[in-house]
Structures are given as C-alpha cells and as structure tokens.
C-alpha cells in the first residue's frame, strides 16, 4: 500500500526515504529500508554501484588479480611449468572487466527493482522548501528521511597550481585506458597511488611514483610505510622521493613531459623532466560530492573540505537528513558505508534506537604487491594513547613457503601492537602474500579484545603465513 | 595435509645390531615417596636430581604442578619415583625419541631452560626404500612438500585463468615433474640441515640412532658415535607412518605411499590413489593439477571426521577439476604387467562387479599407524590402545609410566597435526623445566585440507554440533559465494561455500566454522582465534568486512539453513 502524497511534493508517490546516491552506502541503505517495509526512492544519475563497482574496489581488484598472474608467470618455471612466449593483452582484460562491471550494474538494478525501490535518474539537489525537498530535473520529491550518500571523486590539482595539471588523469581515467601505458607517472603516496603504480608496473609499464616525502602510506604503521616503499622499488617502480610536479606540457607527439622538482632535505632542490609520458595519473586525494547538493538550502553543515558533518548516528545538522560513506570523509571504504547504511535503516525503520556503526578497529587491505592488511592502532598511535612503557611490539619477517622454491623472493612482514599488562592487541599490521585474506578473522578477534595470550593459545594452521601471527615470540 | 611427525625408530632397536649400545638407565631412587597418594606427573620429576624427585608434600606438588594426578595408593607405593643413575659419560635431563615437529620443539624448548637434552632420530626407509633426514613427517613427507606441490598445481590452474586475464600462453603447457620435485626436495634438504643447525645452536645433542626400551628404565640405541647417553625424562615422539592394506595381493610389492610420492625422481604418471583421507585427496588434487591422469578409489565416505557436507563439496569440486573417483570400490589385487604398468583389480560394492585398469603408480592412502612396536613399549610398561596401537596419555602428556611422556601422532586421541605436536611439546618442556602448569588445550584446533579448492575449518562439524546440542538448539548460517577472482576467469564457484554453526540461544556462540575457497588456510586462522576467544554470531557481524575478499563473506553470513532461503550471495 502506498501512503498518500505529502503536501508540497509534486511526485506521484510519497516516500519514507529518499536516498541520494546509488553507490555502496546508498544501495545498502535503500535496500535494507525497503526490506523493513519503507517506501524508498533512489536518486542516481549514472550506473548503479558507485565508486566501488565502477571505478574502485571491483575493477581495481580485477586489475590486481591480472597483475598477480604476471607475478605467477615469473614463478612457473620454478614449479616445473614451461611457459615460453607469454604475452599480455590489456584489451582482453579491459573488455572482460567492463563486461563484469556491467553485469554487476545490472544485478544492482535488478536488486533495487525487486525491492520495489524507485530509481530516479538525475542529479538531486535540495530546494528552499520548508520541508526538506529534493529536486531532480525540475521534479520535486520529499520524504521524512533523506539520506545523502553521494560519495566522492578523485582530486585533480588546478592548472593554476600546476600548469598543465588537467592533462593528467585520475583513477577514474585509469579504468578507461584502452592500452597498457608505456610510460606512467603516478603522483601521490596514498593507497590508490600505491595500488595503481603496482598494477601498471607489474603489467609492464615503466612506472614512476612521485611522492612528497620519503615514504608512501605515511598514515600507516611505520613498518608498512617503509616496507611498502621498499617493495615498490623492488618490483621496479621508480619512486621519486621529496618530489613535486611543477608543470606538465604536451609535446608534438601527443605525449606529456612532466617537469618535477626534487628537494631532498639538506640538499639543493633539483629539477628534472620525465619525458614521453602517456599516463600521468593524479592520486593525491579524494573530495566529497557535496557542493552541487545545495546543502545550505536546508542547513546541512559541511566542513571546510566539503565533507558533510554527521554525528555517530549519521545525523546531519538538519533533522531528518542523514549522510554516510565517502561524502562524510571518514573511513572511505565500501563495507563501512554499507554497514553504516544498514545500521541507519534499522534505526529509522525498525526503531532500534542504538543502531549505529562502531568506527573503531576497521580492517583495511591495500592491494599492493604484496598486499597489506592492517587493523587498529599503529605503533605510534598506541604509544601516544597508552604510553611507551605500556606498549609491547611483536615483529616478524619471513619468506612465505610459496617462495621457498622460487627465484623471486618477496618477504612477509608482520607487527602486533599490544597494550597494557594483559597485552591486549590494539593493532595488527602486515604486508605479504595472503595478508589480504588473512586479516578478516584477526580483525574479529581484535574487535573482541583479544590478548597476546589468546593468540598464543590458538593452534596454528600449518603451513600457512597466517600461523606466524599465532606463533609470535 | 599430511601432517604428523616423528621419524620412525628401528624395527629392531636392540643389541642385535653392530655398534655400541647406549644404555639410558633410570633406576628407582633409594626411597619411595612417603605417604604419597598424590604424584606430580611433570614438574617435580623434572627437577630430576634424586632429592627433588621425591614428592613429599601435596602443597608443594600442587604449587609447582597444579596438574598433579591422584594415583591409586597402591601404585604410589609400589611404583616409586625414578631417578637416574649415570651409567654413561653423558647425562641428560631429557631424552626425546623422534626428531619430528613435536620432538624437536620439545627438545629445543627444554634446552632454552638450560637443560641437557638429547634427541634420537632415525628414519627407517619405506618399503619402497625412500628415506629422508631430520625433521619428521611434516618437513619430509608431509605438510611442506605437500603444500609446495599444491602450490604448483594452483599455478597450473592459474595458467588457465591467466588467459581470461589477458595473458596469451602457448598451449599445451608442459609440466616437468623432475624440475618441481628437485626444487621441493632441495628445499626439504635445506630444512633438514636447518634443524640440525638449530639443535647444535641450542646445544641439543642429536643422535642418528634407533632407540628401544629394554625395561622401564632403560632405552637402548645404536649410536654411530659410540657414546652412551643417560637421562631423567623420556619423551616419545616418533609419530606415524602410512599403512599398507593387509589383504591385497601385490600391495606392498608394487604400491607406494605418501612416504615415497614426494621423493619420486620421475613423474608418477597415471596414478591410482586408494583411500579418501585428506592425504589421499590432497595428493590426488595436486597430481590432477599438474596434469596427471589421477583416480581416487574410495570404499566409503571422504574425509571421515570432517563435516560431511563440506567433504562432499570438496570431492565434487575435485571431480569437476578432473580427478576421477571410483566410489564404493575396494581393491583386491595389484599385478605388474609386462609393460611395467600396474594392473589393479577391484570390486564395486554397489554393483557387485569386478573391474580392472592399469596405472603407472598405485599409492595407498588408507590411514596412518603409529609404529609403537619398534619401541618395545611392553618392556617399559607404557600402555597403548590395543586397537589403534597408539600410546595412551593423560592431559599432561604423561604415559602410564610417569616419567615417560608422549606427544604428537603417536598419542591416542590427539589430532595428527604438526602445530598441536609442536605446542604440546613446548608446553611439556615448560611444565618439566620451567615451573609451568599450563596444559595443551586440544579444543578448537583449526585445520585446512589443501585440496585444489581449499577447505579450512575450526570447531565442531554440523553433525557433531547436532549430536552434542540437538538440531533444535543450533543455528547454521551459510552462504554460497563467488570469489571475485573467479568471475573474470569464468571459473565455476558452485562449491565455494561457508558454514557457521552456532548455538541457537541468545548469545549464539560459534561452535564451528567451515570455509571452502581459495586461501582457506590463510582465511581460517584469524577466525580460529576469534572462536577460541568465544566469539558469538553478533560479534562476528560487528566486524566490518574487507572488500573485496573471500574472507569478508564470513562476516556477512545471514541466511540460516532453517529458513530454507537461497544462500547464494548476490552483489556486494
């Protein structure tokens, strides 16, 4: 049954929940609310699935898997396989990847339709109506609950900051590449920069990674930050440290010349030009999709960077309007947005007053080569919180069994950060083969408050890399 | 996994062999424990010297060894404490028989506490003549070579996937057994060496000798160096070896076991593996994966003792992967043909028919047996289970003779797993020499079967949970999921399945977790920790997933079996 149309709304149907954004968070919130009996509409101008499905986790991991095959191919001979004349064709994987993403788009669309959620195509923005109202292509919609889940997008420096910056692409453009670039320059030290540099380099593009300081992933634990920088260099990525782009020009051949300045502390800055670049990729951060929403019309506050300000229940500063996911700028991860959205749906439509996501101890994986897994506090953070004397660190570094018989050796490093007398595990950081799949279970235990003694009491699984975590001494 | 430990000791561990006999002599002390009735099974004895070996105070015993074991008073009186009379030039606080995972871990741990420790290890060649170095089953003929060959097979499959990922690879891809085997064997040899170096560094004396009890206080062995050794405590950790069938003609003559497979210099070719244990399925899996014509013959159920729904999925996947299965069949004879191929005759129990086929290799994987009789345990008075032949131990790993302990595959009722043997060995050494009282906890031991699609599990099977708690009192959450790496590769994910068995009451404590999929070994370890910590279903759900991984599917389980709803995962 449909509730009667609310006054002021021009739409035929009245909704209990309007969701802006058909990405991971928006879809999860819309579907869960619908499951709980709410009448829901979803506003999305583009293909469903948002960043994750279209230009994020999913196609990224497909490309990472592709690159992993490149690594395996080095090892085949060591394991007895003769594989002469191996060639890589970027177009093949691009087509398959696109087809897979399309399939997911369709699945999402079907899921939404099956849940009787209306899809409103277009960009939504708030109006000045007294009741919070959304206008899409001149049509107005309203509902007692409105969820902002519009996500974010990669940042590109302006041409005024860096002349010619707009000649570069972002991670969005990476997924449109029709050929493997011959010469790639990736700017940035975050996980997106690390992942894309790793994929391009492993697949055979000569790649340079330009970072402002001396290490990548500077917000991660120092072990990961150092080790990842080292591994990038080991796999052939040319890491330019203390380096910034000064300008970008297009040569007559259509390729880019990237002028950079390197300023190692204590040394005179030097300038150089990276020539004939066919892929300049900015991975210098992401910004929220909030400015086109006319949030000021409804008094929804944003921070100086444009992130929507929310409380721990995802409430914005305007009653009845909520926000979650990347647009809020906190823990930019698909599962976080999904979990927050479902919690919110249960709060709004099932009366579960306390339903909210706990943002502590969220596990994260970086699909670098080899992958990184991390949850909880870094050593530095733990020392700051608990004091140096109350923090105990367990470390290990080893060569995984897989590499026992291979010429190519990639080590695995692990760090356990424990706090207090009972040695509660407050952080876990690792990089190595299998760390991507290894982390989840440990994250459950960390969330539960596991201690070092609990790890010691868990029987190992032999032979795995994960067993090293329960046999740390 | 082929796990386990302990190189086997001599079949004839007696003085019939040439060389110098080492007498390890343990004699009763001059006095018996006054007014005993209580006897400390571990720690007090460990103090070893005749004086401290006498327990005369219940409190003291309890203080140092809360694991004290009340004994019948008659025993306490009639069986006095043992202490050592030094009959040789060397004296040892601990003698470990068997240099496998458990024995080595126990020996090294004891040495850490400054104790004098000796390890006896001798590998009796297999019936086909295969022998190996220090380190036991795991290192030489178990986990390590098995996992490496499993990796080789995974690489074989990855070559097929790679083509979907844009790699063109000229077909057919050829695999050369000898290249793989050589690398694996070289690596194993480096581990043998590594173990010897470690023993040396930790000042553990290693004897490449066979040992056997000649009476409760004496272990005899043949030493190359011609030295006599003596000791205070004895740990038996000689592990197990694959069994041969008794009533199949030609079985012993022509068949190999997992003791031989990893050391073959040439490809086994078309192979029949008899048995449906994890050893059988793992070996059949990697042989199939490297391109060999492989058949598994099973009389009854696969993976006995494991959750049977999962076991069926594992074999189902193997069938789709190319492994052939002869179900409800049992072999009757093996003959060698003029072509050197082996002709196997078997009966089909369902059809009542007799069938034959010829193979290059026949491998028996019909179970493993402890080789206790070579130890001459009767002479020591160490009791064994008459059915299994395994040594009966208590919670502190003590045998029926208090100063003799046993750990690992040779013990009755313990999992045949390297990590449990290692952990038990270390804890035993700590109790013996470091005033610890901590016992090995054998609950919630996780394990992984490294079949082509790996199967990892921890805790109870669904059957065991039903039996223990009743089907009305358990809730099973399950999901059929598709690993992202399978999508582009167009691989069938029918058997990628997760099942979590919980109590149904409010807290929904997790009783068991079962996971089939890539990297199951790496996935299940952390969850095993959570379950060891007493994780409940809501706690599992509270953890944010890691996207996109297979492991995250565990934290997304929400369909109960009871609901009858479709458990297929759709979308993120």
Tell me what you see in this structure.
The complex is a heterodimer of chains A (473) and B (572). By secondary structure, chain A is of the alpha/beta class. In chain A, 28% of the residues lie in helices and 23% in strands. Chain A is built from eleven helices and 24 strands. Chain A has helices at residues 24-35, 50-55, 57-75, 90-114, 171-174, 191-202, 222-234, 334-349, 379-386, 435-448, 452-456, and strands spanning 17-20, 40-43, 81-82, 87-88, 118-120, 124-126, 133-136, 139-142, 145-148, 152-154, 183-187, 206-210, 238-240, 243-250, 256-262, 270-277, 279-282, 286-288, 321-323, 364-366, 372-376, 391-398, 412-419, 424-431. In chain A, the strands form six sheets. Chain A has a five-stranded parallel sheet, covered by helices on one side. In chain A, helix 1 (24-35) links the parallel strand 1 and strand 2 (40-43). In chain A, helix 3 (57-75) runs antiparallel to helix 4 (90-114) and helix 3 (57-75) crosses helix 6 (191-202). Chain A is globular, with a radius of gyration of 24 Å. Mean pLDDT of chain A is 95; it is low at 1-12. Chain B is of the alpha/beta class. Chain B has four domains: 1-89, no CATH class; 95-242 and 369-433, FAD/NAD(P)-binding domain; 251-366, FAD/NAD(P)-binding domain (3-Layer(bba) Sandwich), CATH 3.50.50; 453-556, Enolase-like, domain 1. Helix content of chain B is 29%, strand content 23%. Chain B contains 17 helices and 29 strands. Chain B has a six-stranded antiparallel sheet with strand order 24-25-28-27-26-29, sandwiched between helices. Chain B has a five-stranded parallel sheet with strand order 9-6-5-12-23. In chain B, a hairpin with a 6-residue loop joins strand 27 (497-503) and strand 28. Chain B is globular and about 65 Å long. The model of chain B is unreliable at 1-90 (pLDDT under 50). Chains A and B meet through helix 3, strand 3, strand 4, helix 4 and helix 8 of A and helix 6, strand 7, strand 8, helix 7 and helix 13 of B.
